[in-house]
Specification:
This protein has 310 residues and is an alpha/beta fold. The protein has a single domain, classed as UDP-N-acetylmuramoyl-L-alanine:D-glutamate ligase, CATH 3.40.1190.20. The protein contains 9 helices and 11 strands. The strands form 3 sheets. The chain has a 6-stranded mixed beta sheet with strand order 4-3-2-5-6-7. A 3-stranded antiparallel beta sheet has the order 8-9-10, with helices on both faces. Strands 1-11 form a two-stranded antiparallel ribbon. Helix 2 crosses helix 8 and helix 3 packs parallel to helix 4. It is globular and about 70 Å long. About 2% of the residues have low confidence.
Length: 310
Amino acid sequence: MAAMNYFSTPSCWPCLLLKAEIMNTPTLLNPGNRYPRVLSIAGSDSSGGAGIQADLKTFSALGCYGMTAITALTAQNTQGVRAIHNVPAQMLRDQIDAVVEDIGVDAVKIGMLHSPEIVMTVAAALDAHGLKQVVLDPVMVSANGAKLISDEAVAVLVRELFPRALVVTPNLDEAILLLGRKLTATDELEQAAEELLKQGAHAVLLKGGHLPGHDVVDILVRANADGQIAEVHKLHSLRISTHNLHGTGCTLSSALAAYLALGFNLPDAVQAARIYVRSALYAGSHVRTGAGVGPLNHGFAPQAMKVWES
């Protein structure tokens, strides 16, 4: 399929609608045309900076059609998390089934999963619907330090979802929790990413932004069919000076899922997602939102919705 953007061509939708009104003829539906479809399975952030709110903003900004299956409701703002209400497992499964069976899904982003039952529910749904382009962001601690997952859920998440994900995207704190040891320097990241790969993942994007220094280094490692290291990509960038970091990890993983839905291969999707996040960080760096850690500017340069032509 080829991507079609009506607003970048002379035959734009406003023109077509005006023509239809003048000629008193209906616009024609082509049942073969569709949007790139991305599903976020994650928690809700009432402040709008992270979780499914950040995911939907990112999907929309990158020209994709976003859908959600909410795992938990959080009462939070830029200063911290006040309360968490967990969604029942059956309700979560019903949400996933409803959108996949009707609309379809090209890529999935998974975020906050708070309990073993919820993890197992998601794993079963991925299998039932044959969903393969899965970005797993193992959300465990919020930017404000609040714990978002139970201890017993961590082991279940590694066992059940690492092998089912195309790529896992832990930050430094999450990698430390998963590996059970500290990481204090950039030159430790590659070995840490390889160790995470051996826990069952097909690919790992280890984010090094929590380390000090002017440079930010992320590591992307991929395994071959035998589980051996096949590729290592070191991704360097200058640190952007900003206090507004809330939702950075959610935004990166959702941008990665969006680019996969748009047809990018994994290394190119990672590069494009990092560019989008860095641009959103920079665009939001001079804005004050709330009294704590503010959000990115997801809508700094929104793209028109893409349409795949049949």
